[in-house]
């Protein structure tokens, strides 16, 4: 591991300026991803700016919703009574990720900024455009089972690993960011990006920009929401595919509003807007949900190894709806 | 870059000078001579380095020691300071190990997990998120899910499960 300087500022603005003014500096949060990358040689910063002790751990009522500080641990966010009832998709997403120990350590902001688990990204002996821009993509022609089926580019075919990020898009969360030029707000749906020809950048954040909080607006669809994750083993594994669904139905059962967001299929949480449009304003049926998923999947481009993903994400979407809408489950029997 | 930090380990206050890159696990094992937490994968995937940090179960391999200046750490050895902890006794009674390498991590994880469950923390397999869990909700499925961060390559899971179930009293 390369020699490292370590700084522990006590103020978020100081943390921002320390990183913004040093291209070789990185923020250190809970460390569950970055410390691993230091060991693997995937990350080689000269300076770590430890933000895990900054006073960003509030979890409080705010503007009718909740304000989640960047340092709120994944376990604490998942267990919060208000989150469990008002935004259950977030508890479900968090509890489906990592392990009890890691959830106690990992932070809200760090979860969003964790990096891909693509085996080639993590193996410094292989080309990877995300780790070393311009070196090529080993995954496109290599072991492809975990690759993206939506929005992939020639530069990068990987998927974003965060479950929380998928849930946050389904509840219309906003990410609060402090940068050298002050504060800005980024919708959770716009935080992560598709690779295009610049695979190195996972998010729209610039160097030195620090996530300080996440705002959760209260909504009818957030209250009726859930998360389905499909993985290789029953626990402690990343998603093959995952689905966040949030739904608001009228008394007569018609869909007033909804969100369908997919994980494990793209370089960012994939909001299935075509599927949403096919279901909004109509009564819900199991067949309707499957057709809606198919409409979204028209854009999918499975490659060698990911042929299973479209059917899996369609079925997982139907399962998520069945969990939220009991009469749909009846109809499916 | 070297810095001096203080840790309270198993009730003893210790001062040590560490390099920036020293993990908490290496600080405990190589610098303080506490070999109770084990180095298994060293990448956060096996749980054998688990300790209780400020009362919660926590990995020590994915942690830089510097970041934990002032922390209070209890290892499996520390749990046995005044006689075996009930979780440790239950592991003995139910053969919750074979080679024993993962056991200190399993024990610390189980102690932390039981605290979480008693405090109402739900898990991935909890049906109703609106109802806080209690120790009585810890059926086999709940225990397996909540202990999934600790691998046992000998496959002593049935014994581990029985040990944790007994202490939970479910």
Automatic annotation (TrEMBL), chain A:
Domain FAD-binding PCMH-type positions: 1-221
MF annotations from Gene Ontology: FAD binding; oxidoreductase activity
Pfam annotation, one family: FAD_binding_5
SMART domains listed in its UniProt record: CO_deh_flav_C
Top-level division of the source organism's lineage: Bacteria
Cited InterPro entries: CO_DH_flav_C, CO_DH_flav_C_dom_sf, Diverse_Substr_Oxidored, FAD-bd_PCMH, FAD-bd_PCMH-like_sf, FAD-bd_PCMH_sub1, FAD-bd_PCMH_sub2, Mopterin_DH_FAD-bd
Keywords, alphabetical: Oxidoreductase
Stored Gene3D superfamilies: 3.30.465.10, CO dehydrogenase flavoprotein, C-terminal domain (3.30.390.50), Uridine Diphospho-n-acetylenolpyruvylglucosamine Reductase, domain 2 (3.30.43.10)
Name listed for the protein in its UniProt record: Xanthine dehydrogenase YagS FAD-binding subunit
TrEMBL record, chain B:
Metal-binding recorded as keyword: yes
Classification via InterPro entries: 2Fe-2S-bd (IPR002888), 2Fe-2S-bd_dom_sf (IPR036884), 2Fe-2S_ferredoxin-like_sf (IPR036010), 2Fe-2S_ferredoxin-type (IPR001041), 2Fe2S_fd_BS (IPR006058), Aldehyde_Oxdr_Iron-Sulfur (IPR052914), Beta-grasp_dom_sf (IPR012675)
Pathway(s) served: Alkaloid degradation; nicotine degradation
GO molecular function list: 2 iron, 2 sulfur cluster binding; metal ion binding; oxidoreductase activity, acting on the aldehyde or oxo group of donors
Organism: Nocardioides terrae
Entries under Pfam families matching the protein: Fer2, Fer2_2
Domain 2Fe-2S ferredoxin-type: 3-79
Annotated protein name in UniProt: Xanthine dehydrogenase YagT iron-sulfur-binding subunit
Assigned keywords, A-Z: 2Fe-2S, Iron, Iron-sulfur, Metal-binding, Oxidoreductase
């Amino acid at each position: 591991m390369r020699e490292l300087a370590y700084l522990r500022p006590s103020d978020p603005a100081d943390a921002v300026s320390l990183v913004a003014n040093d291209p070789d500096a990185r923020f250190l949060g809970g460390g569950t991803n970055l410390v691993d990358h230091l060991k693997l040689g995937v990350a080689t910063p000269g300076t770590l700016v430890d933000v895990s002790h900054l006073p960003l751990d509030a979890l409080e009522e705010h503007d009718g919703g909740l304000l989640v500080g960047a340092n709120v641990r994944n376990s604490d966010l998942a267990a919060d009574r208000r989150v469990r009832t008002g935004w259950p998709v977030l508890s479900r997403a968090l509890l489906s990720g990592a392990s009890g120990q890691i959830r106690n350590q990992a932070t809200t902001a760090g979860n969003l900024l964790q990096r891909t688990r693509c085996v080639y990204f993590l193996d410094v002996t292989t080309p990877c455009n995300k780790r070393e821009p311009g070196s090529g993509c080993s995954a496109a022609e290599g072991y492809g089972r975990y690759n993206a089926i939506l929005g992939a580019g020639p530069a990068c075919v990987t998927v974003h690993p965060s479950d929380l990020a998928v849930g946050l898009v389904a509840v219309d969360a906003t990410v609060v960011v402090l940068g050298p030029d002050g504060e800005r707000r980024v919708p959770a749906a716009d935080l992560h990006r598709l690779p295009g020809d610049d695979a190195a950048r996972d998010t729209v954040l610039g160097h030195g920009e620090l996530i300080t909080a996440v705002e959760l607006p209260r909504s009818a669809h957030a209250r009726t929401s859930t998360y389905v994750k499909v993985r290789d083993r029953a626990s402690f594994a990343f998603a093959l595919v995952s689905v966040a669904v949030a739904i608001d139905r009228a008394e007569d059962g018609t869909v007033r509003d909804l969100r369908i967001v997919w994980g494990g299929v793209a370089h960012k949480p994939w909001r299935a807007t075509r599927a949403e449009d096919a279901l909004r304003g109509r009564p819900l049926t199991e067949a309707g949900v499957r057709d809606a998923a198919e409409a979204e999947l028209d854009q999918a481009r499975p490659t060698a190894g990911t042929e299973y993903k479209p059917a899996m994400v369609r079925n997982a979407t139907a399962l998520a709806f069945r969990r939220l809408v009991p009469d749909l489950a009846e109809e499916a029997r | 870059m070297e810095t001096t930090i203080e840790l309270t380990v198993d009730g003893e206050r210790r001062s040590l000078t560490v390099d920036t890159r020293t993990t908490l696990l290496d600080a405990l094992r190589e610098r303080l001579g506490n070999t109770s937490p084990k180095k298994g994968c060293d990448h956060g995937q096996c749980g054998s380095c688990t300790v209780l940090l400020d009362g919660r179960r926590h990995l020590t391999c994915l942690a830089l020691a510097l970041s934990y200046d002032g922390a209070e750490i209890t290892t499996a050895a520390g749990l046995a300071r005044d006689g075996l902890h009930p979780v440790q006794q239950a592991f003995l009674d139910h053969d919750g190990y074979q080679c024993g390498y993962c056991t200190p991590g399993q024990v610390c994880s189980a102690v932390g997990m039981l605290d979480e469950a008693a405090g109402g923390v739900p898990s991935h397999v909890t049906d109703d998120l609106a109802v806080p869990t209690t120790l009585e909700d810890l059926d086999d499925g709940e225990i397996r899910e909540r202990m999934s961060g600790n691998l046992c390559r000998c496959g002593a899971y049935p014994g581990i499960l029985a040990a944790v179930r007994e202490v939970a009293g479910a």
